[in-house]
Structure formats: structure tokens, C-alpha cells
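User: Structure please.
Assistant: Input sequence and predicted structure:
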Amino acid sequence: MPREEFDRGLQLLEDDLLNLSSMVEKSILRSIDALKNRDLKLAEEIIFQDNYIDEKTNQIEEKCIHLIATQQPIATDLRRIVVFLLIANELERIGDYAEGIAKISIAMGNEPPLKPLIDIPIMAEKTSNMLRNSIDSLVNRDIVTATSILSADDEIDDIYRKVYKDLLKFMLEDSKTIQRATYLLWVAHDLERTADRATNIAERVIYLVTGKSDESS
């Protein structure tokens, strides 16, 4: 494969990754909308959409493997393909979290959440911003933005601890709230893990640009 064709293949691979990230970010935000609005139809759509996310991830993996097998890339080229492969897997897992939140909405049915949804939508907005910024840092090969995402994860952890503490108080005061509180704990946990995955993507970008893993990870 001539160098020009190889470079084109790498660019198409990165474009696929950007499309996947857009699908995943949309699923996360829509899953919270479904939860807030008790929109069970939307929740079902999100669950179905995860099939497309999985399919897109598989396509990216196959392209990565094909390029490695046929071109035997070394140094920067190999690092780029491996990073794309790892990021695709992180995005696929975030898609799973969106699907999980949608399934929680369906399990809740028409029952309203235990408490007004304030902290959880904030978590969702901040985690989606982290994801978007991590992908932007990939596009721009921007380690400054990537590094800032590592500290942003601490804020998500703080919100998660607050949500956990608030819901635990409900459960301790009234055992009848345990199921409803547990649903929201699962949602908060999925968002916290989404932030962790966005952080992982940022760390992959740092590795791509510098050839070194982030020392704080």
C-alpha cells in the first residue's frame, strides 16, 4: 500500500472514530432526557441505538487489525492505530452506560424519581463535556486540553459522592425508598464511569502525542 493510501486509511479511521464519539455522546445525553421526562419510548430507542454503536466499534476494530496485519506499521503509525483501537473500546463502553441508564428508565416505568433530578443532569452535562473535549484533544493533538480533563474527573467524583450520600440518607430513613434510590445510584455510577472513560481517552491522547503514559494514571 503506497504511503498516500496508508495515510488516507488512517484519516478515514480517525473520521470513523469521530462519528462513533458523536453517537455515544448523543446517547448519554438522550438517556438522561429519557430519565428526566419519563420518556420510555426514547429509552427504548437508546437501547436499540446501542446496536449501531457496537457495529461501528466492530468496524473500527476490524480496520485497525487490517492495517496492522497488512502494513506492519512501526513507531508513530503503530501508536496511532493502537490508540484509535483503545479509544473505540472506551467509546463502546460509554455507549453501554447510556444503554444501562435507558434500561433503568424502563425499569422505573412511570414512577417518578425518588428526588428531583438536579445533581445527576449536572453530572451528565459535565461528563459529556469531558468526552467532547477528550475527542477534541485527539483531533487537535492537544495535550493541554487532554491534561485538563484529568483534573475535571475529580469534580465528577465529588458530585457522585454527594449523590451517594443523599440517596443513602433516604434509604436509611425509610426502607421503602431503597429500590427507587438504588435506581438513581446506578445512574450516577454509570455517569461516574463515563467520566472515567473520558479520562482514559485523554490519557490515550497524551500517549499518542508524547509516546509516554500520563504519570498520574
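The chain is about 85% helix and 0% strand.
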